[in-house]
Amino acid sequence: MTETTKEKLRQEMLIRRAEIGDETRREWNLRIQSHVLDLECWEQAGVVMAYCSMPREVATDGILGAAMAQGKRLFLPRCVEGERRFEAVEVMDLTSDLAPGPFRDLVQPGRRLPAAPCGVSFDLVLVPGVAFDRDGGRLGFGAGMYDRFLAGHPELCRIALAYSVQIAIRIPVTPTDLSVHAIQTEEELILTGHVPLS
């Protein structure tokens, strides 16, 4: 698939996502949150890598709050300025530890917080994206930051959060792309066949 074709699919999916009404979006966000918190892999995870959602993405604020309330160690991505990558940063307070970042109005851990040491081990990573397919293929915004992060942690259990309208028939992937293990939508948990999940 050419970059032009990928960009066309990306724009189509962004339009689909933007067309979700506010009330429907709130209802779907609550459903997805409830489903995630009921997953056995979530219940068993002590160290979670998640993300702060952008406008019109599946909202993660309730999930992040639940992680803190349940005593999990919570890490969030922080863009490294001038580089097309992010670093994982542990947060202790979802108010004082977060600040506006340089990428697409994304809120992220503040600069005063240290990046996670190289040896930190995550039990679960929640993955954003613009579109996914039922085989676990993922289409992001094109910066490649999550691809680089996941390549450095191939053993991680990877669960994508998406609305059902973001599921595509097929997203071509390269041999170096890591598929997600499951996709949680408001309707279902899509198991992609890479690892079993409860």
What this model shows, in words?
This protein has a 7-stranded mixed beta sheet. The relative contact order is 0.18. By secondary structure, the protein is an alpha/beta fold. The chain has one domain: NagB/RpiA/CoA transferase-like (Rossmann fold), CATH 3.40.50.10420. It contains 5 helices and 11 strands; from the N terminus they run H-H-H-E-H-E-E-E-E-E-E-E-H-E-E-E. The radius of gyration is 16 Å and the shape is globular.
Q: What is the CATH homologous superfamily assignment?
A: NagB/RpiA/CoA transferase-like
Number of distinct helices: 5
Measured on Cα atoms, how large is the radius of gyration?
16 Å
Span of the ends, CA to CA: 33 Å
Shape: globular
Total domain count: 1
* CATH hierarchy, class: Alpha Beta
Strand order of the largest sheet: 3-2-1-6-9-10-11
**For the report, how would you describe the main beta sheet?**
7 strands, mixed
List the helices and strands and how they pair.
Layout: H1 3-18, H2 22-38, H3 40-44, E1 47-49, H4 61-69, E2 73-79, E3 86-91, E4 98-100, E5 107-109, E6 124-127, E7 131-132, E8 138-139, H5 145-151, E9 158-161, E10 182-184, E11 189-191
Parallel strand pairs: 1-2, 1-6, 6-9, 9-10
Antiparallel strand pairs: 2-3, 4-5, 7-8, 10-11
